[in-house]
Amino acid sequence: MNMRSIRVLLLAASAVALSSCSINIGARDDKAPPPPVAVAPPPAPVVAKPGPEDDPRLLATLYMQQAEELRRLSKQAYALAAVRLPAALKKPGSSALEQTDGGKGKPPAAIFDVDETVLDNSPHQARAILSGTRNFDLGQWDEWVGERAATPMAGAVDFVKELRRNKVRVVYITNRECRPRATNPGDPCPQHADTLANLNAVGLGPVAPEDLMLKGQNGWPSDKAPRRQEVIKTHRIIMSFGDQFSDMMSVTRKDDSATRARIAAAHEDLWNTRWIVIPNPTYGQWVDVLPEPISGSLRTK
Ligand SMILES: [Mg+2]
C-alpha cells in the first residue's frame, strides 16, 4: 500500500466517523424540545405626540393674551412713564449710556423697542404652539410680520401721543430683521414697510421712515448701541422703553442671570427715572441665558 492509498483510507475513515457523529447529535436533538416558533415582537407602545397642552410656552402666551393682569401691568408701565415724562424733559441727562455728554442743547427723543414693547405678537406665538413648531421659525415669523396685524400693547398708543404733544421725537429701534422675501423681489427690507404700516395702523405713528431702524438696515447689528449712536447725533434721548434689557443697554447672551442683575443694579438711577420695562413672559434673554435643562434653574427656597 503506497502513501496515496493510505491517505484515501484515512479520509474514508474520517468521513465515517463524522457521519456517525452527526447521527448521534441527531439522536440527541430528537429528545430536545422543539425549537421555539418565531414570534413577532410586541408592537411599540403608542406614545402620544406632544400637543399644545405640553408646549412650555402655553401658559406665558395665554397670560399675554388672556390675563387682564398683563394688560394692567402694561398700562401701569406707560402711566408711570407719563408721570416721569415732565422730569425727564426738564432735568439734564440722557437715558442712553452712549450719550456721555447728556445731549445738552439737543431736542428730545424717546427710543422704543417694537416687539412686545409697543406691538403684541402673541398670535404668532399662539400659531407656533398650535402647529407644533417648537423652535423659532423665521419663515412663520416673516409671514406674521408681512400680515401687519400686530395689535398695540396696552397704554402704548396714549403715551406715544403724549410724547408727540410734547414735541418729543419717537424712534423705534427693533431687531425685526431685513431679509429679502420672494413676494417682494428687489426690496432688500420689506419688513421695514410692513412694520411702518403696522405701527401707523394702530395709532403709534405717524412714523417717518428714518424713525424706524431695523436690524440689518445700513449693516446695523443686533446690538442696538450703533442705532442709538445715530439718534444721539442730533437728539437728547430722554427715555427708553423695552421688554428686554438690551433695549436699554448692551448686554450679551454670555451674561448669566447673576451678571445681568449686577449690571442692572449699577444703573438704579436710570431704572427709576428714564428706563421703562414692559413685561414679557413669553420669550427673551431672561430665559435664553438659563442653562439647559431650564428646570435646573428653579429655586426651591
Ligand atoms: Mg422686544
TrEMBL record:
Pfam entry (one): Acid_phosphat_B
GO CC terms, sorted: cell outer membrane
InterPro entries: Acid_phosphat_B-like, HAD-like_sf, HAD_sf, Lipo_e_P4
Source taxon at top rank: Bacteria
Stated name of the protein: Uncharacterized protein
